[in-house]
Amino acid sequence: MIRTIATAAPRRLLGAVTLVAASACTAGEPPAGAVTSDEATFRVETVAGGLNQPWSLAFLPDGDRLVTERGGRLLRLSDGEFRTIEGVPEVATVNQGGLLDVALHPDFADNGWIYLSYAAAGDGGYATRLGRARLDDDRLADFEVLFTAEPFVRGGRHFGSRIVFRDGYLFLTAGERGNKEHAQDLDKYHGKLIRLTLDGDVPDDNPFVDESGARPGIYSYGHRNPQGMIVHPDTGDIWLHEHGPQGGDEVNRIRAGANYGWPLATFGENYGGGRFAPEPPLEGTVSPVHHWTPSIAPSGLALYQGDAFPAWRGDLFAGALKLTHLARLELEAGEVVGEERLLDDAGMRIRDVRSGPDGYLYLLTDGSNGKLLRLVPAD
User: Which intervals hold domain Glucose/Sorbosone dehydrogenase (predicted)?
Assistant: First the structure.
């Protein structure tokens, strides 16, 4: 069931934390300013504002937060203030490209490595690139390029760029760069999920490592533009969502070597109308676990496991850039069994969603006045 929920708009603030004000309420009724959803009643707090097209969020062990801005800044939020991290590599800020995801090495507390994905220029075009560096206070040291999703192509669409870790390996999404036929071409890294070692090498057990003409880093293919990805902590499954064309945004559960169908099968349509491919299922491809038609333009994905909202534990949360809201997906036995729309009337383009170490759910809102928000229990 999809339920539309309204909330008071949070106040812009840089530095301190503000809480949407509450007035006295009658026993049994939610306080003023609270949002009542199917499974929880919560408030929206503004942690910080004044961000310019923020894209990704990561939590440091000392309680600081890292935020990327698409224009090329990496920021550290500490004691209520943003500080700029020096030493970020040169990025290509072109259309949807720029500085994108940031992720901490699984052993960050011991080695200090962070990973960045970004759009890079080269050979007459642009490509998704992965690099890493050691975070040394407010600077990046020992930066090295680990991987480039070649070939470089013209245009600034569909860079993908989410990063996760599993079993000692790194997974990176790469969009098909606006060339839909590339998603089926194993000679290109476009429209693929890529699996690497933490040093950027290709594992020798990748599914296409011995296939002639195939790029060895490919783990799965037939993706359009995946901008949300998580590893389920209980099952180890990788879940990702990806943008469809006009409709057909997909949530997929990943299998090694599998073809996820783009553009051979899709629930979406051509821009301007008209189908160009049959709807799933299609033999030889994996159908999505869930899809959004019409498109919500999903970005950011989190699996909530905190204690602040017990009824949300195990649910997926995805941001929406088009039909602006926060989507909550209920999972049961590896399937999506329910969906709820939160913050439907707040008018926020949600770029990233993270489950914080403090048990709260964090959001980054898109745009030239982006904000870092968090959801907290209303009581």
Answer: 51-374
